[in-house]
UniProtKB/TrEMBL annotation:
A Pfam family that the UniProt record links to this protein: HMGL-like
Coiled-coil portions: none
Family indicated by similarity: Belongs to the alpha-IPM synthase/homocitrate synthase family.
Catalytic activity: acetyl-CoA + 2-oxoglutarate + H2O = (2R)-homocitrate + CoA + H(+)
Protein name: Pyruvate carboxyltransferase
A GO BP annotation: carboxylic acid metabolic process
Keyword Zinc-finger set for record: no
Lineage: Archaea, Methanobacteriati, Methanobacteriota, Stenosarchaea group, Halobacteria
Gene source species: Natrinema ejinorense
Length: 409
């Protein structure tokens, strides 16, 4: 645990004291609602099989994710079976089906033994009137009737207003109020369907909704401006208690808020004690990537292979010195063990320096050459890397070393 006087610094992370220049009050409890198997699967080309959803869902639950949303039971028999299997698996995570505000959808969800339903209805008039071809009054009627019916079936109702961020504020508050009073809602979703919010806008919208209703607020955002994580954190700062995320950030267009980044940020930037085993996060991201067919970019925060990679010679020299002094967090904001990552590695390439030679000779058990020979080795490494336009392997380092230096001479 961090020192109370330095909450930004612990054995697992060292972030900035500027994060603590003003009081940030987060909810007493923050839950994660995973929508990888529904919103993530809406990414073009992504298809999870029934078994993949079940096996991944078990892993997500074991890691500590609070709620799973395996899909829409009316989309396919595979989805319906996956939802039902997960709901009857005895997981710590609650299982929610995603449904329209339609009685038939609720009936099928109830048949799957789910704990709850995320019930969607459009809230912006341009979608209601032009995409759905409804009137605003029809949207209200459908939402009230369906949420009341779901509540009567004894399941939790998470009311999900599509395009909350672009709905007229009065229209949004009206539909939320009418559903809460005449239908039913156990929680209300603030939904940025088209990724149109800024962090400041997210805080404003969550404050608007939370100021009107004394029930849990959920935050669901998309990443069209690369702000999915920032907006989720902004929503939480404004009082949202349940964060909708996807593992590896899968989702339509530019994806959804990324689970591993939101969770790591809450832990390290806000010193928030989440009910999550983040040491599993890299492995789970990789398994999800394999199942989805979407590769993890090497520079992706938290789980990318370059998160703890080094190539520049000066940075390698820093790392060598800090490693010897057992000060790894002097140049990383969080420890690799926190997120199940590999220890820092020094790459061999165009930007290498003499510290790279020192590091790899030590690591491979090779005798350190005289400095002039190290310069020759370094120039050969740089030339090969430039010519091949890539990083060199340890085996290639050994070949260059042996071609350049014979310690027996």
């Amino acid at each position: 645990m961090p020192d109370a006087s330095e909450p930004y610094k612990s054995s697992q992370y060292w972030t900035s004291h500027h994060n603590w220049n003003e009081d940030v009050e987060l909810p007493d409890e923050i839950k994660f609602h995973d929508t990888t198997f529904r919103d993530g699967e809406q990414q073009p080309g992504v298809v999870f099989s029934e078994d993949e959803k079940v096996e991944l869902g078990k892993l997500y639950s074991e890691m500590g994710i609070d709620r799973l949303e395996p899909g829409l039971p009316l989309v396919s028999d595979d989805d319906k079976r996956a939802i039902e299997r997960l709901a009857n698996e005895g997981l710590d995570a609650d299982v929610y089906a995603f449904t329209r505000c339609v009685k038939e959808d609720v009936e099928v969800a109830v048949d799957c033994d789910v704990d709850g339903v995320v019930m969607e209805v459009p809230s912006s008039r341009h979608l209601i009137e032009h995409a759905y071809d409804w009137s605003y009054e029809q949207a209200l009627e459908y939402a009230i009737e369906a949420t009341e019916y779901a509540h009567e079936q004894g399941i939790d109702v998470s009311f999900f207003c599509i395009d909350s961020s672009r709905a007229d504020p009065d229209d949004l508050i009206t539909i939320l109020s009418r559903v809460k009073e005449e239908g039913h809602a156990d929680s209300l979703n603030v939904v940025d369907t088209f990724g149109a919010l800024s962090p400041a806008g997210t805080r404003s919208l969550v404050n608007l909704v939370s100021g009107e209703f004394d029930i849990p607020i959920e935050i669901h955002v998309h990443n069209d401006f690369g702000l999915g994580v920032a907006n989720t954190l902004a929503g939480i700062q404004a009082g949202a208690e349940i964060a909708h995320t996807t593992v590896t950030g899968l989702g339509e267009r530019s994806g959804n808020a990324n689970f591993e980044e939101v969770a790591t940020a809450l832990t390290a930037l806000y010193d928030y004690d989440l009910n999550l085993d983040l040491s599993q996060v890299k492995e789970i991201a990789e398994v999800t990537s394999d199942a989805s067919g979407v590769d993890i970019h090497e520079s992706k925060p938290v789980v990318g292979q370059n998160q703890f990679g080094i190539e520049a010679g000066i940075i390698a020299a820093w790392w060598n010195r800090l490693r010897e002094q057992e000060m790894p967090l002097a140049m990383y904001p969080y420890h690799w063990d926190l997120v199940g990552q590999n220890a820092p590695r020094i790459a061999i390439g165009k930007m290498s320096g003499l510290a790279t030679i020192e590091y790899w000779c030590d690591r491979l058990g090779l005798q350190a050459p005289p400095e002039d020979v190290q310069e020759d080795i370094l120039q050969s490494i740089k030339g090969t890397s430039i010519g091949e336009k890539r990083e060199l392997s340890p085996e290639e380092f050994v070949d260059i070393y042996r071609d350049t230096y014979n310690p027996e001479n």
